[in-house]
């Protein structure tokens, strides 16, 4: 008779999902305990959702010139005398519905701001890692180019790039490529900040033992930079990218306001403000006020999220 006790194997503990890890993280706890961050996130989400669902919720496509009717021009907001449905925020001098124009313009401003930050972030991360890891003449060349860009005003560089692109392109392509040109013009002077931040962190990390050990076992340089050094540089970069998102949207609005951004038939918030500014003192205040309020709400919510993220990721404040 076999009196041996059968061995039982316990199942390996189940690894929590990414959503569970996020819910139990200090970052999520900090977010829940920060009322201004919750308010800013809800506000930004509301703006983004309404902007990208604009074709479904707006009474008019402001980019379709055939949909504009001049006899519906200069209608005041619905609560003013003479207001008409469905033009809740009134119309401009061309019969364009202000609410539709604001939501469509917000979508353009958000896309250009996000794409320009993403492009600048990619270039800055790559050049900053290379400069901090290799050093020497490579570091000197990259940083001197960055110093040259920092020595000139941001808006001047962007205007110069847009002017050169507009003069070089055929007439038919200027309006088609207006958004990519703006993205490139905003990203060119913006990558320097990311590169300098990553370079400083990469120079510190490159001297640590785990990087030296990786070099001894002949791990490729690009793998060391991407898998070992880059994760330790992401905290300040994430905060900078969030804050620069608001600055990128403001830069696009500034360029469009100066007349070197989006064309009038594809109006962003800056273009709408430029057009409405011409009629500010003629009593048509709603043409400029509502796009300005929308721009302020977007930048305010992004900056509030950036301020919370900076405090939440700062180990000294925990």
UniProtKB/TrEMBL annotation:
PANTHER family: ABC TRANSPORTER PERMEASE PROTEIN, OLIGOPEPTIDE TRANSPORT SYSTEM PERMEASE PROTEIN APPC
Domain named ABC transmembrane type-1: residues: 106-306
Main location: membrane
Cell location: Cell membrane
Domain of life the protein comes from: Bacteria
Acyltransferase keyword on record: no
Membrane topology per record: Multi-pass membrane protein
Name of this chain's protein: Peptide/nickel transport system permease protein
Keywords: Cell membrane, Membrane, Transmembrane, Transmembrane helix, Transport
CC per GO annotation: plasma membrane
GO biological process: transmembrane transport
Family assignment from sequence similarity: Belongs to the binding-protein-dependent transport system permease family.
Keyword Transmembrane tagged: yes
Sequence intervals crossing the membrane: 37-57, 108-136, 148-170, 176-194, 229-250, 284-309
Pfam families (alphabetical): BPD_transp_1, OppC_N
SUPFAM superfamilies found in the cross-reference section: MetI-like
InterPro entries: BP-dependent_transpt_permease, MetI-like, MetI-like_sf, OppC_N
